[in-house]
Amino acid sequence: MIVETARFGFVNVDPASVISMPRGMFGFEEEMEFCIFRHRHDSSFRWFQSTTRPELAFVVVDPSLFFEDYSFVLSSVESEYLELESPGDAMVLVTVRMIGGDFEPSANLAGPVVINSKSLLGLQVALDDERWGTSHPLKKSNDAHEKLPKAA
Amino acid sequence: MLVLARKVGQCIVIGDNITLTVIEVRGEQVRIGIEAPKSISVHRKELLEQIKAENIRAATQNITEDQVPDVLKK
C-alpha cells in the first residue's frame, strides 16, 4: 500500500506491518493506523507515521535503549485489550520531542505506546506513576559509549 | 454538574457498579476510594491532559528529518 506522508513523500508500506491503534493517540483519536519508519539506518529513532494523515508523525524510540530502569505494569484491562499472551510480545515505544534551539531530545515516559508485536495491535497507555513524566531528556553520557546499543 | 455533599466514609454510587468513597479530608486534599469494574479506566484528569498536550507538542514540532539526530548515544 502507498502511504502519503508530509516528510517522506509517498512511501510503499507492507500492509502486514501496519499497526492498528483503535483508540488512536491521546489528542489524535481519529487516526487509528500507523506505520513505523526507521530514521536512517544507524539511528535509534523511528517515525511513527499515521497512514491516514500525512502530516501526523511522531519521532519514537525504544525506551530501554536510554532508560535502563524504565518499567511499568500494564493493567489487566490493557493487556487483555492488547491480547498479550506474554510480556515478551509487547513492543514499547515512547514519543520524543526535540526541545529548544539545540533540538535536545526528550522522551514522554508517562504515555508509552504498547504494541502487540504478533498482532500489531497498539495502545497508548497513561501511566499514573510519579517516576515517569512527559519530558525526560535523552542524555548523552560520556562514560557510557561502550553501551551504545545497535539501532533496533 | 451534579454537586453532592459527602462526609468521610460516605459514598457515591454511579450506575450499577462504580462506587466512590470519601476516605479522608485533610486541608485542601481529599482522598477518594474508587471501586469500579476493571474495564473502566480511572485516571487523574491532569495526567491525561499532560499526555495529550505532550502528544500535540510532539506531533506539531516543526522538525524536518534532518533535525533529528542520526545517532543518539546513551
Structure report:
The complex is a heterodimer of chains A (152) and B (74). By secondary structure, chain A is mainly β. Helix content of chain A is 4%, strand content 33%. Chain A is built from 1 helix and 11 strands. Chain A has one helix spanning 76-81, and strands at 2-5, 9-12, 19-20, 33-38, 46-50, 57-61, 90-99, 104-107, 113-116, 121-124, 136-137. In chain A, a hairpin with a 4-residue loop joins strand 7 (90-99) and strand 8. The radius of gyration of chain A is 15 Å and the shape is globular. The two termini of chain A are 24 Å apart. Chain B is an alpha+beta fold. Chain B is 22% helix and 27% strand. Chain B has one helix spanning 45-60; strands spanning 11-14, 18-26, 29-35. Chain B has a 3-stranded antiparallel β-sheet, with no helix packed on it. The termini of chain B are far apart. In chain B, 9% of the residues are buried. The model of chain B has no long low-confidence stretch (mean pLDDT 89). The interface between A and B is large, with 47 and 29 residues.
